[in-house]
Amino acid sequence: MFAVVQLDFDASKVLLEIAAVRSEPSFLSKKRCHYVEWVNKVLQSHKAMVIDEFRICFELDESSQDDVDEWLLYAFAKRVKSLQLDFLQFGMPTAFVLEPYLFPSCRIFDQNVEENSIESLSIIHTKSFRTLRVTDFQSLRSLRLAGVDVTGETLHFLMEKFHLLEHLVVIGSQSEDLSSVLVCGSSSLKYLELTHCRCLKSIIVRDARHLVSLKYTWVSNVVLENVPELVDVWVSGWKFSRMILQLSSLLTRLESLTLRVSNSDVNEDVTRFLKVPHPIGLKQLTLDVRASEDDSLLRLTSSFMKSCPNLEKFVLKVPMSSLAYIYIYIYIYI
Question: Per the domain annotation, does 226 fall within a domain?
Fold first, then answer.
């Protein structure tokens, strides 16, 4: 029986202390130095040949770029399976870090390797230039980047080279180079989340035969083609009607759908929803609606229940006011 090797550098409790004295930047800088020293000390003494799970959880930014890059090199060399970088300010996806850490660019730098040989890869940064083999990346199955800047080119590289990658999460990237994401071909990806990425405008998923779950926010152009296993979708946006249009080709076979709607024209949106031509096979539906005083939530509820004959659970979340994050939850089990 093999033991699971986990390196979880979770300092979320310290983040609460930082939030309490946010007006003192020197306090955050001091805590960052302590955190970096802690991680470096542990890694220097760590003797395991492989790492199953590697997690960094602290409010780090570009000032820690070199150290974080070194940690990544270390983790990849140890054939890490699950990698998480959680650098969110206050742990909140909408609280953007002013100078975020940039996830390192990967390049195939030896263009003269033979076709059947092991390609060499490198993570390029200012502190060191270490060579990694393609096989060093083959173990990665799960990657979470929160409060980290990442480019579309890097995401494409990850999905192309990390053949076992099944779980990919990007939260709160501010990079202007992450305007579109393309998932295409025989990717092993099963779960994809792209949320609160400020410049992301387009998601195109084609021939992703293994994709089961998709989550995204504020994306104007979404193309989903040949995704036979996709049964769970979570979407947040301004217009309910636009989100339904994006998902119209999937509604007949989706099993779970969550819609977080920020507009207030619920009555108009219900009318649009009822015009969907095919029966809807949803088993679980969650609506997070910012409704106005004139909107009929009863009509909204009854309309969805009539349109979803297979519905087993319906959850309606309604904030009590536009300024308060206090919700009324309505659960209906059928």
Answer: no
| Poorest-pLDDT segment among 83-92, 97-106, 188-197, 218-227 | 97-106
- pLDDT tens for 175-205 read 999 999 999 876 799 999 999 999 999 999 9
Q: Which domain holds residue 329?
A: 231-334
What's the pTM value of the predicted model, to 2 decimals? Answer: 0.86
Ramachandran angles phi, psi of 301, nearest 5°: -65, -50
Residues facing residue 236 across a β-bridge: 217, 260
Say if 163 falls within a structural domain.
no
**Strand partners for 214:** 192, 233
Is the pLDDT assigned to residue 274 strictly greater than 70?
A: no
- CB count, 10 Å around CB of 284? 17
| Number of domains composing the chain | 1
CA–CA separation, 112 and 86 (whole Å): 37
245 part of a folded domain: yes
